[in-house]
Prior knowledge:
With 129 residues, this protein is α+β, with helices and mostly antiparallel strands. Helices cover 53% and strands 18% of the residues. It has 4 helices and 3 strands; from the N terminus they run H-H-H-E-H-E-E. It has helices spanning 4-18, 23-35, 46-72, 91-103; strands at 77-84, 107-113, 117-124. The chain has a 3-stranded antiparallel beta sheet with strand order 1-3-2, with helices on one face. Helix 1 packs across helix 2 and helix 3 runs parallel beside helix 4. The model has no long low-confidence stretch (mean pLDDT 83).
Amino acid sequence: MIGHLNLILRLVIWFLLTANLSPSNIMIGIAIAFLLPGRPKTPEALKDWLRVLGEVIVAIPQAYIEAFEIMLRPHKHEDVIMEGVKPQRTPGLIFLDIFLITFTPKTIVLKYHKDGRYEVHRVRRRRKR
Length: 129
């Protein structure tokens, strides 16, 4: 059986993909959320999910600010950095972390390494000295 938070995450992704909240689509989404293969249930702390959802809410204004910065003052330098995954992360929380990094215009996750690192491409205004 899958956890409640993973079920909700699957449904949210389904509704974002289909953009349809009709009763039949809701039933199909619930069926698909239950039929998708799961993994052994691991304890997920509600505080971790709430913290990540709070970070998503904070990332929305940050994304607008970064978009205006890029339009007004072009960023000509770029680099690829490695960021570590926070300890004790479930796949759902790792997905939300990758979403947070990719949501802002200046950064995008290129690859997730199984050893617990993200390869992140970012643009900057000027080079570090």
